[in-house]
Amino acid sequence: METIVVGVDGSDASVNALRWALHEARLRTARVRVVLAWSYPQVSTYHEAKHVLQIPFADDAAAFLDQVVADTAAAAEGLEIEKKVVEGQAAPALVEAARDASMLVVGSRGLGGFSGLLLGSVSQQCAHHATCTLVIVRQGSDA
After folding, report:
1. What is the pTM of this model?
2. Cα distance between residue 129 and residue 20, in whole Å
3. In the β-sheet with 81-87, what is the strand arrangement from edge to edge?
4. Which of 5, 20, 26, 36 has the fewest CB atoms in 10 Å of its CB?
5. Which helix (H) or strand (E) holds 100?
6. What is the CATH number of domain 3-137?
7. Is the model's pLDDT at 43 over the cut of 80?
8. Poorest-confidence range of 18-27, 75-84, 97-106, 113-122?
């Protein structure tokens, strides 16, 4: 069975990428590996849950990832979902997590600054280093 890896950070763009990946996994009968990379100190805003979460420890990151995935439960129903929390920088962590995958999915913009740019630094780095198909889901794209 093929694997689709999707990177999430709680931003609207990453949640949109997760929904897109779940839809694609259903079409392909694939499993989904949802990856959250974090480093200390990190503050993430999860817009749909309407709260700010500080992630100082792996347990907090795991709870944060559980919440992001739970909020897409309807789209994930019946799919094999693996959740993975990785300490470190996002792009290298995602590229490594997708080494055995058929596809890596990321949002076009994460929680970093410079919202006017077409692509964020994570999506650009993944484009340069991913060894599988990379899908960059633009803001406003529907699954």
Report:
1. 0.82
2. 21
3. 81-87, 31-38, 3-7, 103-107, 133-137
4. 26
5. none
6. 3.40.50.620
7. no
8. 113-122
